[in-house]
Amino acid sequence: MPAAKKVGWAQLRVGMMALAALAIVFVLVFVLAGKKKLFAKNELVYTYLDDAVGLSTGAPVRLNGLLAGKVKSVVLSGETKPLRIIKVGLELDKDMLKQVPVDSVASIAAENVLGTKFINIRKGQAKAFVQPGGEIQALDARDFDEVVQQSYNLLSQLQGIIKRVDAIVGLIESGRGSIGKLLVDEDLYNRVITIVSEFQGITHALATPKGTIGKLLYDDTMYNELRGTLGRVDTMVADLQAGQGTAGKLLKDDALYTELRDTVKGVRKTIDDLNAGKGTAGKLLKSEELHDQLRTSLGKVDSIIDKMNSGQGTVGQLLVNPQLYDTLNGATGEMRDLIKAIRQDPKKYLRIKLALF
């Protein structure tokens, strides 16, 4: 019996030591993994999100990066309003909850791109604090999502541009196109080198006192001639400003200016008289009676010309009758011969007889 009691007592002690070891291991695991007080009192608050985006129960809750609790629940709220689709229960340490102002904002964050999601509370500045069972406002990430979506579109466009640039670079590297030929075509490269050499030759020629441009740059004689020409132009301008010469008097002489002004006034008065119908020229421009008379006279002249063209009258016959023209031409010829004969022997035709009664 005593041996059996010793064995039972030994087993009891082993069991008690095992339970103590398990309790110690549990406490260590809880403290090291949870990073919170073992017997801390927790309070439950809520926040509402539009999308859980991989958030799960047990995820850490941080206050400005410091561990403050864990996610108690992630469920549908039953509401349809934006930013209130998902209801998240946050189990926070009571001491930490006392440091969360009512204007604090909760949002989903991650340690890295592939890390576990957690709730991060950004501390506000209000004097009042969130009470147990209260609500922490969630950060509106819709604008950020829109920016991200636009950035995706921009990245897609940028990717297309990069593809086109890569295609252009491929064409250039293959020697196609003007730029590609410039890079890989030896003949084109040699021609460019030749043009550059010729341009260098022209530059060298300009740098020497040869040729027209070189002389213009280096020859003192041409410089002096140009300077003399500029001096004469300057003298001419000075004479004009001094009122010398015809052009100078035109610029400076008040009497000439007055005469020119009076002349312009006279011309203007003449034009006004013409527009008013004064004088012969004015009446010619404005008088209907004179216009009718002139029109009638022109009609008569036109009628006479028509008669002459039709052969009426002496002048008309002279214009259209060949026989009359020939007769007149013959008479003219005989008259010319008679005058010639008289000049040759005037005594034969000119006789003066004197008689006395």
* β-sheet strand percentage: 5-15%
Mean pLDDT: 76
Q: Give the biggest sheet.
A: 7 strands, mixed
Count the strands?
7
Query: Poorly predicted ranges (pLDDT <50, ≥5 residues)?
Result: none
Report helical residue fraction. Answer: 55-70%
From the spread of the alpha carbons, the general shape counts as elongated
The N- to C-terminal Cα distance equals 231 Å
Query: What is the helix tally?
Result: 14
Oligomer: single chain
CA radius of gyration is: 62 Å
Elements, N to C (H/E): HEEEEHEEEHHHHHHHHHHHH
Spatially, the strands of the biggest sheet line up as 1-4-3-2-6-5-7
Which secondary-structure class do the elements indicate?
alpha/beta
Could you explain the architecture of this structure?
The chain has about 350 residues and is α/β, with parallel strands linked by helices. The chain has helices at about 1-35, 95, 140-175, 175-185, 185-205, 210-220, 220-240, 245-250, 255-275, 280-285, 290-310, 315-320, 320-345, 345-350; strands at about 40-50, 60-65, 65-75, 85-95, 105-110, 115-120, 135-140. It has a seven-stranded mixed β-sheet. A hairpin with a 6-residue loop joins strand 5 (about 105-110) and strand 6. Helix 7 packs across helix 8. The chain is elongated. The termini are far apart.
How do the strands and helices of this protein lay out in sequence?
Blueprint: H1 2-34, E1 42-49, E2 60-63, E3 66-76, E4 86-93, H2 94-97, E5 105-110, E6 117-122, E7 137-138, H3 142-173, H4 177-184, H5 186-207, H6 211-218, H7 220-242, H8 245-252, H9 254-276, H10 279-286, H11 288-309, H12 313-320, H13 322-344, H14 346-349
Parallel strand pairs: 2-6, 5-7
Antiparallel strand pairs: 1-4, 2-3, 3-4, 5-6
Helix pairs in contact: 7-8, 9-10
